[in-house]
Amino acid sequence: MRVRLGQTEVNANDLADSRGIIPADVAEMIRRTRAEEQWERVDSTVTGIGAERLSRGWFETWEDMANADELQWFSGRDTSVGPSYTNQKTERTDWAQDIHHVGIEFKAPPGISDIENEPLDAQITPLLFTQELPGKMRFRVILAESDEVANAPGDHFPAGYGVSYPLVSAAAAPTVFAGNNGEPIVSNTWKFPLPLMLAAKAKITVAAQIDQPLRAALARIPGPGSKILPDKNGGFFNLANWYVIKVTLRGPRYLQLRGARSAA
After folding, report:
1. Rounded Cα gap, residues 143 and 20, in angstroms
2. Cα(62)–Cα(121) distance, rounded to whole angstroms?
């Protein structure tokens, strides 16, 4: 991959260090020759019925999730994963990005006691997932598989979007809306003092491990289950309860200008 600096054409990869990071002054020079647009890298892990068959790194049960040595994001997803869960199915991209923010959303389905086939989905599980798990799960942001640039519990990386506060209703059909971690304000996320100037083809991953005692508890509880819903023909069908951890890396990306030979 080649890029023109003034009258000289060079290999853009030669400008990056071992982590795939281009020095700030050189990166700024290159970025001025590119089309800038706001971008969010998004990737998710899912726990629930049918998830494991769709992608590596997804889990069928709480036990499967608890027994995993590590959960990973941006390390490659199967092509069958839908765009609401990930917009990066490969480890590397053809464009550079300045990453300013990291946000992590813990999203649980609403628990509605009258239609759940697993009672815990209507009671404690959504709250454990969204309120307890963020503080019992260590997240690391890693460049080039070795250089940690962030390391903290999940509740230090608020999502900055989505539903905010939990709601528990004791109405005729008791319901739990588990909420999310942090205020749903875009600026309410982990912010790097200076942006990570990630070169094209550079690898960035996010990894996490669940800590005790929640890890042991998840390994023992049943589920997730599904909701039993009526269909239009008078019968019933099951809608799987999927619990999602969605990681967003936010900041402008730099695309090749029309007619240019390369992007860095």
Report:
1. 8
2. 12
Residues 213, 217: Cα–Cα separation, whole Å: 6
Q: Report the distance separating Cα 175 and Cα 168, nearest Å.
A: 6
Tokens matching residue 215: 């890890």
Residue 246 has, within 13 A of its CA and on its CB side, a CA count of 24
Contact 176, 168 (CB under 8 A): yes
Task: Give the global pTM.
Answer: 0.80
pLDDT for 160-180, tens place per residue? 766 555 555 444 445 555 555
Q: Each residue of 215-240: pLDDT tens digit?
A: 999 999 999 999 999 999 999 999 99
Question: Strands, DSSP E only, in 51-210?
Answer: 71-73, 96-107, 111-112, 137-143, 147-153, 167-169, 175-177, 190-198, 204-210
